[in-house]
Specification:
The chain folds into 2 domains: 6-130, Response regulator (Rossmann fold); 152-218, Arc Repressor Mutant, subunit A, CATH 1.10.10. Helix 2 (40-50) packs parallel to helix 3 (66-76), helix 8 (164-174) crosses helix 10 and helix 8 packs across helix 11. With 222 residues, the protein is α/β, with parallel strands linked by helices. The radius of gyration is 18 Å and the shape is elongated. 50% of the residues lie in helices and 13% in strands. It has 11 helices and 6 strands. It has a 6-stranded parallel β-sheet, with helices on both faces.
């Protein structure tokens, strides 16, 4: 099992947070924290010596920022997989993190099972953006998230298992909207909104609304 585990480099300057995250990953099958770093420069050196599969990078570090460390790591190896794991959601940090080459921008309060799924998909070459950060990217129209406007005909041809209404609901799910907010935006009942979300989850063959958002972003559905 050890050899098949995803090797993680955990970069976090706060000892309590670092210990907590390590304990969390120790309980998750298939993930192993094989190295830790308390600063950006330390992260770069640990990357050189431990060759992790995925790096979990905090932004606020005592020497150079996690964003700068990500840039330097990718200069060493363009195939490095970096997940920005942060408690902050600012426009500047979201944009600079993704522009630095990070594969994912994840909030620290994320569900454990979803975080495991994100790490696994990042390891396989995917990109993941926290639904709360998606509106920032769209508003800036910076090209980091596909701006794909599909005609109904094109939509039905490529994703005939989803209805046009479900496609509209899916876009709101990606934006991080709750069922009540979806209902208000589309002038439907909360019960109907919930039913649409359940249908989308089933049709996209995922476990929950967050995974539906991930798949929608990965495949350019929104």
């Amino acid at each position: 099992m050890l050899n098949s585990s995803i090797k993680l480099l955990l970069v976090e300057d706060h000892k309590l947070m670092r210990v907590g995250l390590k304990s969390l990953f120790d309980e998750l099958e298939g993930l192993e924290v094989t190295s830790e770093a308390q600063s950006g420069k330390d992260a770069i050196e640990k990357f050189k010596t431990t060759h992790p599969d995925v790096i979990l990078m905090d932004i606020g570090l005592p020497d150079i920022s996690g964003i700068e460390a990500t840039k330097k790591i990718l200069e060493l190896n363009t195939n490095a997989k970096v997940i920005i794991l942060t408690s902050h959601l600012s426009e500047q940090e979201v944009l600079e993190s993704l522009q630095s080459g990070a594969c994912a921008y994840v909030m620290k309060d994320i569900n454990t099972d979803i975080l495991k799924m994100i790490i696994q998909t990042i390891k396989e070459g995917a990109m993941w953006i926290d639904p709360l950060a998606v509106p920032i990217l769209r508003d800036k129209n910076c090209g980091l998230v596909p701006q794909r406007q599909m005609s109904r005909a094109m939509f039905r041809e490529q994703h005939s298992n989803l209805t046009q209404r479900e496609y509209e609901v899916l876009k709101l799910v990606v934006d991080g909207k709750s069922n009540n907010e979806i209902a208000e935006a589309l002038t439907i009942s909360s019960h109907t909104a919930k039913a649409h979300v359940c249908n989308i989850i089933q049709k996209l063959v995922v476990d929950d609304r967050t995974q539906a958002a991930v798949k929608a972003l990965k495949e350019g559905l929104v």
